[in-house]
Amino acid sequence: MGGPVIIAVDGPAASGKGTLARRLAAELGYAYLDTGLLYRAVGLALLNSGRDPADETAATAAATAFDAASADYSDPALRAEETGKAAGTVAAFPLVRAALVEVQRQFAANPPGDKLGAVMDGRDIGTVICPDATHKFFIEAEIEERARRRVKELQGRGNAVIPAQVLQEMKERDERDRNRAVAPLAPAADASVVNTTNLNADATFALAMSLIR
Ligand code: C5P
Questions:
Q1: Torsion from C-alpha of 7, 18, 184, 195, nearest 10 degrees
Q2: 2 C-alpha vs ligand 1 centroid, how far in Å?
Q3: Residues 3-35: pLDDT tens digits?
Q4: Domain for residue 212, yes or no?
Q5: Which of 97, 133, 167, 179 is the most exposed place for a label (fewest CB within 10 A)?
Q6: What's the CATH code of the domain at 136?
Q7: Whether the model pTM is above 0.85
């Protein structure tokens, strides 16, 4: 015994999984990894070099060349909607996913800063990356509510947004994430599924903590 505690927090965009995962990590003193940033970084590398994220060969090369240790995760371009879209496109390619497996497992097995655990935020942590995670959560919410949250978040960052377009793009990304052949977005059989449509961040956090304890 004695390996790090691993908490998997999976779910679709704007479900509340990122908020929950960060809060769990802060409360428990564990390391936190937003695995979406890895896919976003690969998508952004393609966009920045004028290549098409739908080009599987280019996407695979970018993922293979990606150095997770030296990447700049504070680049605001990583959070842009266009980058999220590119991330969703590259994330469907099996060799892109394969290139990013090891860095995620390493983080979980050796949480940085000698932390006793890791909270892993993603889509396939409980199913593929860390099937033996100590705790698994699958956070979901109705798509209309998730789109509302995303609109609010984007407006909060000063972006002009068209709500109907945000909803449409979210539907498309969900569809791609749920239906891809490799590591589709789905709850692990042993995950606690939490629907946050009518649950605020505090209530979601309290529920997750009670399940952990
Ligand atoms: O969570 P985030 O919106 O940053 O993720 C961007 C995209 O990256 C997702 O829509 C999904 O396609 C992909 N992704 C993934 N597996 C992960 C994390 C993200 O496929 N573990």
A1: 90
A2: 30
A3: 999 999 999 999 999 999 999 999 999 999 999
A4: no
A5: 179
A6: 3.40.50.300
A7: yes
